[in-house]
Amino acid sequence: MTKTKDTVSRRKFLKRAGIAAGAVAATQLGAPFIRTAKAQTTTWKMQSAWAAGVLGYGIFEEWANSVIERTGGELAIQPYPDKAVVGTFEALDAVQSGVLEANNWFTLYGAGRLPATVFMSSYPLGPRYPHEWDTFYYGLGGLEIARELYATQGLYYVGPIHHGPNIIHSKVPIRHLEDFRGRKMRVPGGMVAELFTAAGAETTLLPGSEIFPALEKGTIDVADYVGPAINMQFGLHQVTKYVSMGPPGFMSIYQPVDLMDFTVNLDVWNGTSDSIRRFMEDEVHIYSDHHHAQIQKADQAAWPEIAASGSEVTRLSEGDVEAFTRLAVPLWYNWANKDKTAARIFKVQLDYMMSGSLGYVTPDMIEGQTLDL
């Protein structure tokens, strides 16, 4: 492949981005940990789904490296970027087997193994904003259900981590649902893949680091990934011409709150002190807010760069939201009925979405659908 000026610039930028990300001004991550007794330092090897050099990994690395000081030397986290120890989609197995002590990936990546995980991260036309997911996890019992599920796999689900909505980069304009028909599209799998397949796209699952070369080679012509700042670092604007989003105020109709999580090997978790466990449970919630805010800050700075790159931003209409909802509702029930835990989680969220607080779902929208509890 001939190296274009943009391609070389992209690669140089990725190298510099890790340094820049590490220099992001950190908010207060949490109260200092008070070590009550002398103990040998325990180290957890932890892999992130963020690739080396991008903003998300810089935030993760900075936070992980701060843990030893804030636990008085009792716990250290050795951070690794995506694929440094195992492949992207092998990370949960690596935690289960003890190759890694902990994992920070996109929860949806577990859908093939644990169907309920499609409801542990945002899904098409489901809960739409971070505070709604915090309500589910910390107010409506979602955290307890997640921990019960992961315990059956020898894992401990410490907590969810917010990062933001996903957007679509495309070589062709995407202005309506019909524009996805026949397009070769990268998606994260699970219900999202089925939604776009129902819309007529030919979908494939790729980790973030493989999206740029796939677009460059023409293997795909449409790609979902995260937000504008990190997508710019990956250079997606160099191999596409358009950015597609939902209507104003609904940035992504298919993954508006693409949650990550912090998961630890269950034996490792149980082998730590009570004080460390309490600290980490609180700390992951605090880190989630920090991680989300830093990425949103970077996204705001990235939008002018997207415009300057010549990319055209297109938005789907409210009519498209209604059309996608008609495709999504049967998928909700298909996935919820794959196992009892999936059904249990979805029922909590469905009741929330049908409540006076949200009102996203009305009885006529789910008429004829049944949930196997």
Structural topology:
Layout: H1 5-22, E1 42-48, H2 55-70, E2 75-80, H3 91-97, E3 102-106, H4 130-139, H5 142-151, E4 155-161, E5 167-170, E6 184-187, H6 190-198, E7 202-205, H7 211-217, E8 222-225, H8 228-233, E9 242-245, E10 260-265, H9 266-270, H10 274-308, E11 312-315, H11 318-336, H12 340-354
Parallel strand pairs: 1-2, 1-3, 6-7, 6-8, 9-11
Antiparallel strand pairs: 3-10, 4-10, 5-8, 5-9
Helix pairs in contact: 1-2, 2-10, 6-11, 11-12
Please characterize this protein's 3D structure.
- The chain is an alpha/beta fold.
- It has two domains: 5-18 and 27-163 and 260-302, D-Maltodextrin-Binding Protein, domain 2; 167-255 and 312-366, Bacterial extracellular solute-binding protein, family 7 (D-Maltodextrin-Binding Protein, domain 2, 3-Layer(aba) Sandwich).
- Helices cover 42% and strands 15% of the residues.
- It is built from twelve helices and eleven strands.
- Strands 7-6-8-5-9-11 form a six-stranded mixed β-sheet, covered by helices on one side. Strands 2-1-3-10-4 form a five-stranded mixed β-sheet.
- Strand 6, helix 6 (190-198) and strand 7 (202-205) form a beta-alpha-beta unit.
- It is globular and about 60 Å long.
Short description:
The chain has helices at residues 5-22, 55-70, 91-97, 130-139, 142-151, 190-198, 211-217, 228-233, 266-270, 274-308, 318-336, 340-354; strands at 42-48, 75-80, 102-106, 155-161, 167-170, 184-187, 202-205, 222-225, 242-245, 260-265, 312-315.
